[in-house]
Design goal:
Length: about 425
């Protein structure tokens, strides 16, 4: 049977049913998420081997070719998740978080200010790094008691902060590589800033009630500037590699995991100065393998095209990205064209914050806080993230409207080539 004509049940390709069952298993059996994800990956792979084949071919050669196509993304995620786990521990052990209360306002205002810091950090760091640093700061300043609603807000702040920057999120970097101008994603911040206020205030109140910001104790902590320097060195290595490859050699950006390898090398080079806490790797590896399994499952789905580009479909992709990895969604959108890239960057970037495994930042933070691996509690206590997503999107649509733009080398986008909004945009 051809891979383009997969078996269906009630009109739904059976591949999607298997993937949906995998996600349901992750949601229900949150103490066994790795086993569920690996079981789902194995089942989907065996099904496609036996019945449908892969986009790259049938049988084992098709599987090997498919994995060869995905290995750069998977390797980058592997290196970044493990590397930033070590980086966040360096940051926590530097005692910088312990002196933060000296500079943060008290009570809920301080909790909100910390979320704003994560937002800003993510605009020029990878969102995984921003979430991990935010988690390390929260662990110290709230004495290890971090409310799950606040954890959801840390992830949301990291994803929102990276949505308008081509170096702030994997999806926006993909857009940059594919020819989208950095200016064309910048207006995502119209929605992201609104969302930060809407989820940040309720989350700060939740955290303040659960465990207030600790008081600053003069002389109680001394900053280890060596570890601070290592954190900076690792981040500079990641940022500079990302910028250099995408500006100077964009044609090879998707052929090797440059950013992940740069982070790994920076950690190894700096190890003689301050030894990383290698004991974190086994736990971080489990969470990383979980994410890689879900990303691989998503990449095997028979999604050949998205709905016609419109503001409605862009908004819908945000909800889909909460359960379906946003990397293949972004790749399909780039292939299809006709999108308002800033709007898409906001939806696929921020939308994954609504569930803990909806983004790599959420998975990374849940490795630090295993209690967060509960979909029901995440959605219940993190309700403000979904509300902020919707209102932020509507504000963006009202203020900026729907304005598709071409990628580098594409013909100009015309009004006849894309769906128009159902309501006239407000300018």
């Amino acid at each position: 049977m051809a891979a383009t004509d997969p078996p269906t049940a009630f009109g739904i390709p059976f591949d999607f049913i298997l993937f949906a069952l995998t996600l349901l298993g992750v949601a229900l059996f949150h103490h066994h998420t790795l086993q569920v994800a690996l079981t789902g990956l194995g089942t989907i792979a065996l099904y496609k081997l036996a019945f449908t084949g892969f986009k790259t071919g049938d049988g084992l050669p098709g599987l090997v070719s498919h994995l060869g196509h995905e290995w750069v993304i998977l390797s980058n995620l592997l290196c970044l998740l493990l590397g930033f786990a070590l980086l966040s521990k360096h940051f926590e052990d530097s005692h910088v978080p312990a002196v933060l209360p000296k500079y943060l306002p008290g009570q809920a205002k301080g909790a909100f200010a910390l979320l704003a810091m994560v937002f800003v950090l993510s605009s020029f760091l990878d969102n995984i790094a921003a979430a991990m640093i935010g988690g390390a700061m929260a662990h110290t300043v709230f004495r290890g008691k971090v409310h799950i609603g606040y954890l959801a807000a840390i992830v949301a702040a990291s994803n929102a902060g990276g949505s308008g920057s081509v170096v702030g999120d994997t999806t926006t970097t993909m857009m940059w590589i594919d020819g989208v101008s950095p200016v064309d994603v910048l207006h995502a911040y119209v929605a992201a800033v609104v969302a930060l206020v809407l989820f940040g205030i309720p989350a700060a109140l939740q955290q303040n009630k659960y465990s207030p910001l600790m008081a600053y104790e003069p002389g109680g902590a001394h900053v280890d500037w060596g570890r601070v320097g290592i954190v900076g060195f690792i981040l500079v290595a990641a940022i500079s590699t990302n910028v250099y490859i995408n500006l100077v050699h964009p044609e090879i950006a998707d052929h090797f995991p440059f950013i992940g390898v740069a982070v790994a090398l920076a950690i190894l080079v700096s190890a003689p100065l301050r030894k990383p806490d290698w004991s974190l790797l086994p736990g971080a590896t489990k969470g990383t393998i979980f994410l890689l399994a879900l990303v691989t499952c998503a990449s095997m789905m028979p999604v050949e095209k998205l709905p016609v580009a419109s503001w409605q479909s862009a908004m819908g992709l945000g909800f889909i990205s909460a359960v379906f990895d946003n990397i293949p969604l972004t790749a399909l959108a780039l292939k299809q064209g006709g999108y308002d890239w800033g709007m898409l960057a906001y939806t696929v970037g921020f939308g994954g914050s609504m569930i803990w495994f909806g983004s790599s930042a959420g998975v990374a933070l849940s490795n630090m806080y295993p209690d967060a691996k509960n979909v029901g509690r995440w959605v219940y206590h993190g309700w403000h993230v979904a509300v902020a997503y919707v209102i932020g999107f509507l504000v963006l649509l009202a203020v900026m409207g729907w304005h598709p733009s071409p990628k580098r080398g594409d013909p100009p986008v015309t009004t006849s080539s894309v769906a128009q909004p159902a309501v006239a945009p407000v300018h």
